[in-house]
TrEMBL record:
GO biological process, one term: phosphatidylinositol dephosphorylation
Organism field: Cyanidium caldarium (Red alga)
Name the UniProt record assigns to this protein: SAC domain-containing protein
Organism phylogeny: Eukaryota, Rhodophyta, Bangiophyceae, Cyanidiales, Cyanidiaceae
GO cellular component: endoplasmic reticulum
Stretches with biased composition (Polar residues): 1299-1316
Annotated segments matching region Disordered: 1143-1165, 1271-1316
Start and end residues of each SAC domain: 169-535
GO MF term list: phosphatidylinositol-4-phosphate phosphatase activity
Length: 1316
């Protein structure tokens, strides 16, 4: 019942009738006493045919091509034609509808087991009103699914892909962790039910139920994934406090002697609900998504109830709510942050705001190690909490959590386990008292504990169980009707003497056996949650179950670690796909040919050159279809991930020496996990896909808001950049201290705040330079904040809020200076296609600055740390920088005029400006990247309040918003002739080589518009270190138009060939693509580590020709999709051909038409499938054949031919043997499938279908008369001609000629039955 709406109880047993054009479910709940009894549902279905008066009146009709509808028995003849019954099934619970490659399937639970009970208010009315005080409490049964079955909801035939796609999903559903109740609401906590709050985050099968529609969803159960367990506890009541020592032992007899009240039994139930938001497996699902949903988020409720009292305590667990991942490494990948501070801060605040709305106040308990590989996560978590609690100068917001940081492995290692855990509890008990527990309807729980470690499994389970044990004392006291003062729990002291611990004996105490049962209950809960996330039981389970570590527990943990490593490589990817399929994040790729009605879904174009990078780092080959409404990513496992066309928000590019060309796509909304990580073999393939994607999506909103570009010319954007620095170790606290202008004063777009030395009193977690009142007026958002430890340099980069969505590829790094407490902090970002890098700190001259930049890991690792940026700034107390080689290599400042008067086309610009207080700024701009000083601002170097100097205040011209498919593609190429290197100085790794040793050199070129990564052939071995390449080298480009080449800056790198190792880098250079067709000589500086190590010279010219063989239609109609698909693909192909036509290879490439291609399964995935098949064979699991998948298990038999069946769907039969077999169950044979007991006597209405197997699960007993074989169970004849059913009670007689006939046997007695 939700929101006052009456929800009809779903049936607990039903018959499934397979018809030619529909499926009919017939309710037979009133005939089943206990659904957990083997074959109870099957027997109830049989008894439905005994008498018309015993039929149930509810029917659910599911037509294949129409909406489902309910009917009653009077309208049964109209609902379907009984003469067209193809077969029958039986089910216990309806889970929903799952679409497989051949079509939709009904998902049924055919076997369930009792897991426990949960309390329900017996006085609650059907209108959802709260029950009155002292309403009796009853226990509602909770069941766990143990076997499921698919039933076809379409008229086609099953395909092999149906079994392949559903195999992992079936394993997950049958794993024993899917729970439901016919009477109680497991989805919501008791407190939410009392308050009438809604919430469906834990309704696990909601995506499966929604396709049923409003009229049929009441037939489906509301299931949760997690754990449910119930125990009975005898409790004792005490009155006085006692003093115990570590040498005394409390026994059950002692407790009984001191008990003042008789033993009373209470029921304790633990219910854990796993959220379906961002659900997944270990390594594949980490951190938070853009909507604030975290991985492995579980709500655990501890219920204590008696027939007249109910109390509940709720705690939650979930992954650290920042963007992070674990992909690098084979055994134990180190965690790494995977998103900018700005994106993480948004998701972090959304997550805790949602917790505040659901639970009230929050205490966040972090058990992550403070050093080692987990330290970055601990620092990021603490930093976001600090930002949340200091968002303004006033009080922290209500949703901001109280943060408790506790290094579990440090404080609870070895013999320090008890002392460490007591120390943690002493920090949490005050909050536990403040939050309280739910007590009937008199008292509500006002807050929640959010506990996490890295996996949120092992350490989290130990702390949660300890908190639950403390809450249990209060719950048991309330169950006995004690007051709050009497129910007060004991106080734990971490500083108690080693031999005597003074404790106040609680008013209610458990017996030793009850305490063991309670700890085992929580141990089972920990194991269940660990199995779902990591594939093994929980580690440190000996702590949870016994409260101490043991050698056996350590050995078990080692084995579990090995199994988890195996699961990471061979199991978790399949389980993750099952999660995605069941929760609606992925759909099964259809194998049915598209009809003319679905012409709008014909792909506009397709790509088969990309790989999708899964959450765990695995690369999966995919085919990407751009359809009318969504981007469809299809895998080799027949799964399809759909992203809405209008949800593309941002993209990022990433390249490196050890990684190929990656593209990250960010989508808005929570329909799909974001970002989508793709990898391409070449930069041109990535660029071609990106252009097509942006043109298809119509995401021109990736361009900047017009308000940011009031005076920018067409094709260029202007961004105001400001860099400010302080000169002392006094750190500003507010935005006004930093001199940030108000919104009415046209604030800068990007602001970098540099704090050379934050001092020991500076703000922690890298936030020393960040104003505390940053969000006071909502003008800026923090993109990145970084600081050195122990009061070193700090820097914060802010972006105006209306331009924040255009920021991407944020990287940050810090480098400590040698023999100094300070150093350098670097932050890089890309904005509107322009790469910016800010560096700040306290250094001692040019040598330290250049050395620190070489060590700072920002930007693309394969490019020069300074030359790769469009604009680079270094500010702070940097020392004397007049000797920086960049100043001599690129003299002069850029022109302050328009882009047309930009710096020389082949050179960059670098300048150094020193101001008062030893502060200075060094800035560098790439060739063709102009900047203009802000004429409205005061002079550069002005000093604001608190000794703050504004070192930079200028406009930089950004590139165009995003690439587009051109209407007039061009073939463009840069021709380099007579390329040579002079005055070369080898870097230190090669300086030891003698000057007369011949070496070979080659030059590699890189740019996103290049069709392919090109390099010169190795030069001839020369001893004079003057390599040259006579002739002409052609660099083919892939531009949208000629104007785009004006922005192209090509990066070149000179390498020397190392015969015995990796080739060494000699230096880097950059040049702007010339726009003249005539040949022009050039000479460029070659830099390595910021030092000039040589000169590169030659002659270059540009060759451009337009491609005439293009369709006449304009691409302005591209967003119309289907009708433009042919023309659009031709234009894309023309771009590809035109670019390749000018390449050095001279071989034009054809655009790949991947619309009909299928994703290729990688070799690694094939090995995984093989390992999985072997594991299934070892476990004895066999899948159903394709011919019978989704069809009826049992044929109609005599049912369809009887007059009674045609008229009223009932066949009159005596009960006979069925009554005696209703509690008998035949377990699976070698095939792993059950064989149900059949009706004896005359015909049957529930017979088996033909199964193509040679196995016969039959129980026989020898007979002494006439060679007869007595059979007590139905068996299958494997003859393909005419399968027949031998009914229970038949005997086979063999005559003299070997012919076998069947005859009916007298009704069996109980002595004739063979029990199992």
């Amino acid at each position: 019942m939700e929101g006052g709406t009456v929800v009809r109880r779903p049936p607990c047993a039903f018959r499934v009738l397979h018809c030619a054009d529909r499926i009919v479910l017939e309710d037979c709940s009133d005939l089943v006493v206990d659904v957990c009894v083997p074959n109870a549902v099957v027997d109830a279905v049989n008894r439905m045919s005994a008498a018309a008066a015993r039929r149930c009146g509810r029917l659910l009709v599911l037509p294949f091509r129409a909406a489902p509808f309910e009917s009653d028995s009077a309208a049964a003849a109209e609902a379907y034609d009984a003469s067209r019954i193809l077969g029958m099934d039986a089910g216990t619970a309806l889970l929903g509808v799952l679409t497989l490659p051949s079509g939709p399937y009904l998902l049924l639970a055919t076997e369930v087991k009792r897991a426990g009970t949960v309390p329900v208010w017996t006085g609650a009315g059907e209108d959802g009103a709260r029950p009155p005080h002292n309403t009796p409490v009853a226990g509602a049964a909770v069941y766990v699914v143990s076997r499921v079955r698919f039933v076809k909801l379409h008229g086609g035939s099953a395909v092999r892909a149906d079994r392949d796609v559903s195999a992992a999903a079936v394993k997950m559903l049958e794993s024993g962790f899917l729970f439901f109740s016919f009477e109680a609401d497991l989805v919501r906590t008791q407190q939410k039910q009392l308050s009438g709050s809604r919430g469906n985050a834990f309704w696990w099968n909601k995506p499966l139920v929604m396709p049923l529609g409003a009229s049929a969803c009441g037939w489906a159960v509301r299931a949760v994934m997690g754990y449910v367990g119930t125990i009975e506890l005898p409790i004792y009541r005490h009155r006085e406090a006692t003093t115990t020592t570590t040498t005394t032992t409390t026994t059950a007899a002692t407790m009984e002697e001191t008990a003042d009240a008789p033993v009373q039994t209470v029921y304790v139930t633990v219910v854990s609900r796993k959220s379906r938001r961002r659900a997944g497996t270990r390594y594949n699902s980490r951190g938070v998504d853009q909507c604030g949903h975290v991985a492995n988020f579980v709500e655990t409720e501890q219920l204590v109830y008696t027939p007249h009292h109910l109390s509940a305590f709720v705690s939650v667990r979930g992954s650290i709510p920042v963007f992070w991942k674990q992909t690098k490494g084979t055994l134990r990948p180190a965690p790494e942050l995977d998103g900018s501070m700005m994106l993480s801060e948004q998701a972090f605040s959304q997550h805790f705001k949602a917790l505040s709305r659901s639970y009230g106040k929050c205490t966040a308990v972090s058990l992550v190690n403070l050093d080692g590989s987990e330290a970055p996560l601990a620092l990021a978590y603490a930093r976001h909490v600090d930002m949340a609690r200091t968002r303004s100068t006033g009080q922290p917001p209500l949703w901001a959590p109280r943060f408790v940081e506790f290094d579990f492995h440090h404080h609870c290692s070895g013999r320090e386990y008890d002392r460490g855990l007591c120390a943690l509890m002493s920090r949490l008990l005050n909050d536990l008292d403040a939050y309280g527990v739910l007590v009937d309807e008199r008292q509500l729980q006002s807050g929640v504990f959010r506990v996490n470690c890295v996996d949120c499994l092992d350490r989290t389970g130990v702390v949660q169980s300890t908190l639950a044990k403390q809450a249990l004392q209060r719950q048991l006291a309330y169950a006995l009707g004690l007051t709050a003062m009497e129910a007060e729990a004991p106080t734990l002291s971490a500083d108690a003497d080693a031999t005597t611990a003074v404790q106040w004996t609680p008013a209610v105490q458990l017996s030793p056996d009850s305490e063991v049962s309670f700890m085992r209950l929580w141990g089972s809960n920990a194991d269940a949650l660990a199995y779902q996330y990591a594939g093994t039981g929980a580690m440190k389970s000996d702590m949870t179950r016994t409260g101490k570590r043991s050698t056996r527990g350590l050995l078990h943990d080692g084995f579990k670690s090995a199994v988890r490593i195996f699961n990471k490589h061979f199991v978790d990817d399949d389980r993750q796909e099952a999660y995605d399929l069941l929760l609606g994040y992925a759909s099964a790729a259809s194998t049915v040919a598209e009809s003319s009605a679905a012409a709008a879904d014909v792909p506009w174009t397709s790509f088969d050159t990309a790989q999708m990078i899964a959450g765990g780092g695995e690369r999966v080959h995919v085919v990407i279809h751009l359809k009318s409404a969504e981007l469809a990513v299809r895998t080799a496992e027949h799964l399809e991930y759909d992203y809405r066309r209008d949800s593309l928000a941002q993209y990022e590019k990433e390249s490196g020496r050890r990684i190929k060309h990656r593209l990250r796509l960010f989508f808005s909304g929570a329909h799909q996990p974001s970002p989508l990580d793709l990898q391409f073999h070449t930069a041109s393939a990535r660029e071609l896909f990106l252009r097509t994607l942006i043109t298809w999506s119509g995401s021109y909103a990736l361009a900047l808001p017009p308000s940011l570009l009031p005076h920018a010319p067409a094709g260029a954007f202007r961004v105001q950049v400001r860099v400010a620095s302080v000169g002392q170790s006094i750190w500003p606290a507010t935005a006004a201290d930093w001199g940030l202008p108000q919104s009415s004063k046209n604030p800068p777009t990007v602001v970098a705040l540099v704090l050379p030395d934050s001092g020991p009193a500076g703000r922690r977690f890298g936030l020393a330079a960040l104003p505390r009142d940053l969000d006071a007026d909502g003008l800026y958002r923090c993109v990145a904040a970084r600081a050195l430890p122990q009061g070193g340099a700090a820097m914060a980069v802010l972006v105006r809020i209306d331009a924040a969505d255009a920021v991407s590829e944020v990287r940050e790094s810090s480098v400590a200076a040698e023999n100094s407490l300070s150093g350098l902090v670097a932050v890089s970002l890309r904005m509107y296609g322009t790469a910016l890098c800010f560096c700040g700190g306290a250094l001692r001259g040019a040598s330290e600055l250049l050395a620190a930049m070489q060590s700072a890991h920002v930007g693309r690792t394969e490019l020069d740390p300074i030359l790769q940026w469009d604009h680079w700034y270094a500010a702070g107390v940097l020392g004397h920088l007049a000797a920086v080689p960049l100043l001599a290599a690129f003299p002069g400042a850029p022109n302050d005029d328009h882009l047309a008067a930009a710096p020389p086309p082949y050179g960059a610009a670098c300048e150094w400006v020193a101001t008062a207080g030893q502060r200075s700024v060094l800035r560098w701009s790439a060739p063709g990247r102009a900047r203009v000083n802000n004429s409205a601002a005061e002079a550069i170097g002005r000093v604001e309040a608190r000794d703050i100097a504004v070192l930079v205040d200028e406009y930089v011209y950004a590139l165009r918003c995003g690439p587009q498919i051109p209407q007039q593609p061009v073939a463009a190429a840069v021709h380099l002739e007579n390329l040579r290197v002079s005055r070369l100085q080898l870097p230190p790794p090669a300086a030891h080589l003698a000057s007369d040793i011949p070496l070979q050199f080659y030059v590699a070129f890189a740019h996103d518009l290049l069709v392919e990564a090109l390099a010169t052939p190795p030069s001839h071995p020369i001893p004079d270190r003057r390599p040259r390449w006579p002739g002409r080298l052609t660099l083919p480009f892939l531009p949208s138009d000629v104007a785009e080449l004006e922005d192209a800056v090509v990066h070149g790198q000179l390498f020397y060939v190392e015969p015995l190792g990796e080739d060494g880098l000699c230096g880097s250079f950059v040049f702007r693509v010339p726009m003249e067709a005539s040949a022009r000589p050039f000479e460029l500086p070659l830099l390595h580590g910021g030092n000039v190590v040589g000169r590169v010279s030659g002659v270059m010219r540009l060759g451009v020709r337009r491609v005439e063989s293009l369709p006449s239609s304009s691409l302005s109609s591209m967003p119309g999709m289907a009708r433009s698909s042919t023309d659009a693909r031709a234009n894309v192909g023309a771009v590809d051909d035109a670019a390749l036509a000018g390449s050095s290879a001279g071989t034009p490439g054809a655009w790949p038409d991947a619309s009909g291609s299928a994703a290729r399964r990688s070799g690694k995935r094939r090995v995984k499938k093989l390992v999985g098949s072997i594991a299934d064979w070892v476990r004895g699991e066999r899948r159903e054949s394709t011919a019978t998948f989704g069809g009826p298990r049992y044929g109609a038999g005599g049912y369809a031919g009887s007059a009674g069946a045609r008229s009223g769907m009932v066949v009159e039969e005596p009960l006979g043997l069925t009554h005696q077999l209703q509690n008998t169950h035949l377990q699976a044979g070698a095939g792993g499938r059950e064989r149900a007991a059949w009706r004896a006597e005359t015909g049957t209405a529930f017979g088996p279908e033909a199964v193509p197997t040679n196995e016969e699960d039959e129980v026989t007993a020898s007979s002494a008369a006439d060679g007869a074989v007595e059979t007590g169970w139905a068996t299958f004849d494997d003859s393909p001609a005419a399968p027949r059913v031998r009914l229970a009670g038949e005997t086979d007689e063999t005559d003299a000629e070997g012919r076998t006939t069947s005859r009916a046997k007298a009704p069996a007695t109980s002595n004739d039955l063979i029990r199992f």
